[in-house]
Amino acid sequence: MSENVDVVLIGGGIMSATLGTLLKELDPDLKIVVFERLGDVAQESSNAWNNAGTGHAALCELNYMPDAANPAKAVDINEQFQVSRQLWASFIEKGILDEAKTFINATPHMTFVRGEKDVAYLRDRYETLRKQPLFSGIEYSEDSRVINQWAPLLMQKRKAGEPFAATRVPAGTDVDFGAITRQLFAHLTNNGVDLRLDTEVKKLKRQSDGSWQVRYRRRIGSAPGQINAKFVFVGAGGWAIKLLQSSGIPEISGYGVFPIGGQFLKTTNPDLVARHQAKVYSQAAVGAPPMSVPHLDARMVDGDGALMFGPFATFSPKFLKQGRLFDIVQQVRLSNIGSMLKVGLTNFSLVKYLAGELLKSHARKLDSLREFMPTAKAEDWELIQAGQRAQVMKGGKLQFGTEVVASADGSIAGLLGASPGASTTVSIMLTLIDQCFADRQDEWRPLLEELIPTLGKRLNDDDALATQTLANTAGALGINP
């Protein structure tokens, strides 16, 4: 006889951890089971060394604002990150998360560009953003002495006469999403949530009563099992598409995903770490996906400092870092093959970029680093393999956002896509709750407003509210610059 529960969460990452915690706060009586195919949570994209740990608020990422005069997307990303900050602050106050320094640290966000064209663009971008309340602290300079004070490793032994410029926002952050994930799951398991590690979900089947039969197998020496759930969330990273396809919901028709991996150069040399306390982003190469914007990042993981530079794109047919070689083939359906072929035929610049990245030697990767940091020495840096991302393909286009795919009746939902991902998890999960638990919105709204005081309000439209909210969350999270 099958076990019956209210909610099944598939995947042990930041998305499932956040959704599970929100649902448990909203209704403590919910019976929730979590399945994770690996031996611990936060081992794929949520792991600190599988991402850059940037609190994505569009403070430094140029791909969120390709038109220097149009800040709409940058503002929207920032708004979503402020929602995450408010929830984390509330979770600390309630004892759900540990003290803030265990997962978030003040780290200035910078953008650094070279060449007259990019300097002119960055200057225009600065003039646009400094008028926005959420970006009011942004600074701009073309003065090498000022930029040297902000990030000395960028300027040492740089060629004279080269046009360059930088922006800086002191209030940026470095976030260890793996730490948040582990802390949230620790809270969940202490409050009755059943976390089943080393357990892979194999198939989802809709039952006659509208619930879902979740078929699973322990990865080591156990017979298959099944469980019935009223609601299923598929937060399994790149594998989400495979499970959503197995569910048979029509909403997944036409979707495909394209896997892109990444590598970073990493150093823990204490002298270098001490001299670069910032996250510095620049322009992406022609044809590069937005997740491949080069950046030199200060990181703080488990209390230890490091620097990361990259990413360097890699290719694998796997949808997860610990996926399977046939993942890319097994997603093919009649409904998506045309779209996938069109993506391949119309994205020559991406194909060319990936080919160039795959051919890069270790020495050439160090040369890329030296464009940021002219004094970089090979002996200080090691190459590490980062996470695997699955970019959405739909309608013949390759998309670079994060998308919720939910059934019409709201009984199942999954997440496809990548950046900005983890930083906007809370907003994404609130959208999902709106879609899938619509009948409980009136009951749950007051509880959500206690956790997120500005829920439903646009901070950037209210200068006073933005200033007060930023100050409140900065104080609560201990991230005053």
Description:
With about 475 residues, this protein is an alpha+beta fold. The chain has one domain: 3-Layer(bba) Sandwich (FAD/NAD(P)-binding domain), CATH 3.50.50.60. The chain has 15 helices and 19 strands. The protein has helices at about 15-25, 70-95, 115-130, 145-150, 150-155, 175-190, 240-245, 270-275, 325-330, 335-345, 350-360, 360-370, 425-435, 440-450, 465-475; strands at about 5-10, 30-35, 105, 110-115, 140, 165-170, 175, 195, 200-205, 210-220, 225-235, 255-265, 280, 295-300, 305-315, 380-395, 395-400, 400-405, 410-415. A 9-stranded mixed β-sheet has the order 5-6-4-13-14-15-12-16-17, with helices on both faces. Strands 1, 2, 8, 9, 10, 11, 18 and 19 form an 8-stranded mixed β-sheet that branches. A hairpin with a 2-residue loop joins strand 16 and strand 17 (about 395-400). Helix 1 (about 15-25) packs parallel to helix 6 (about 175-190) and helix 2 packs across helix 15. The longest helix is centred in the N-terminal third of the chain and has 22 residues, at about 70-95. It is globular. One of its GO terms (molecular function) is L-malate dehydrogenase (quinone) activity. It catalyses: (S)-malate + a quinone = a quinol + oxaloacetate.
